[in-house]
Amino acid sequence: MNLAEKLNSYADNYWDFAHYRENNPVLQYPAKMVAPMQRQLLKDILEFDSDIYNILDPFMGSGTVLDISRELGINAIGFDINPLATLITGVRLEGIATEAIEKSISELFGRFNLLLGNVDNHTFFNIEKWFREDIIEALSLIRAAIIEEKDIRTRRFFWCCFAETVKKFSNTRTSTFKLHVKEEEKINNMKNNCIDEFKRNVLMHYLEYCFKTNIDVELKTGDSCELLKNYSTNSIDLICTSPPYGDNHTTVTYGQYSILPLLWFDINDLAPFDTILLEKFTAIDRESLGGRIKKIENAKEKEYNVLLNNISAEKKKKIFSFWNDYELVYSQMARVLKPGKLLVLTLGNRRVDNKELPFDKFNDYLARKYNLEIETTLSRNIMGKRMPLKVSHIGKQGAVKSMSKEYIKIYKKK
Prior knowledge:
Radius of gyration: 22 Å
Oligomer: single chain
Strand content: 15-25%
Protein name: Site-specific DNA-methyltransferase (Cytosine-N4-specific)
GO biological process, one term: methylation
GO molecular function, one term: N-methyltransferase activity
Keywords: Methyltransferase, Restriction system, Transferase
Structural class: alpha/beta
Number of domains: 2
Strand order of the largest sheet: 3-2-1-4-5-11-8
Number of strands: 11
InterPro entries: DNA_methylase_N4/N6, SAM-dependent_MTases_sf
Helix content: 40-55%
CATH architecture of the largest domain: 3-Layer(aba) Sandwich
Largest sheet: 7 strands, mixed
């Protein structure tokens, strides 16, 4: 039995992992990977190839794949354009100062009383729109108390807990990842128990991070295409990732979701990144793949057009721009991957003009173009979605269905 046969030998709907739910994570993050599904996938791959010493996820998000690589003892390399993603993944992979954490928590909570009335309110552009005045005071107190923690790994864990508090007590709606102000009545009726919620989050989760990592970890914030150029050809043993299915503006607005917590952090505790990403609430999404519509070569436009049918010319510009940016990353992934090694992609086909875009077929096309061959394709139903089953209305067509199925595409470099 080879790997493809093993992966296809499981029962129908096995890869759905229908009963999996992530309960009360330290920080919610949009569109997370299904951890047990990725764990089984990696275990099966290792069964047929034990010669894997590093794994790359160039769209790491909250770090699910790389956290599993830590469990399996594989060195981790990860990139993301979003500084919040790098923070979360770093905490998941590097853990906290185990021997001193309970003392650090006790001192942190004690500082809430010591600093009360002695902290200047934190500020950034338009902060009053997104937070009530008394909430600003409470969050500023928590922020100041975190900054006084001496250990950076512990501070980063506290920032993750704080991010969830910031999200919960902001004036934004929870029904969407985009920034939309709640109704005034809901804002006024919101109970200010920021400090209690923050404490609860810390106490609920700190034991999960009481470990010292046993692998080498390289995490970077930035453009995956540019970051990949720093790695040697044929240097990566396994690439496993879930790439964006379209530009962030029209799929999942990770940047808008993340920007408010990021504006509250001490950015000195974050991995280095271009601070232009914090200048506008849409900046992270704009700098992501396809975030800026660019003119592409006529020859490439003709190549892409073969895969698209009956999509309006205006929408095609956005799709082509995203596909072009994605191809640039794909070409670098193919370059750094060692011959005979695997590229594993979990992806889905979003809808435009109420028509399904064949992102899975586009990846098959790129594989042929960049010297990879398809090993197998698995399909799974998306379970427990936070996104609604139907999204925006298009003209006279009514509500557009959102994605309900994903594909696991496995390619081998020739």
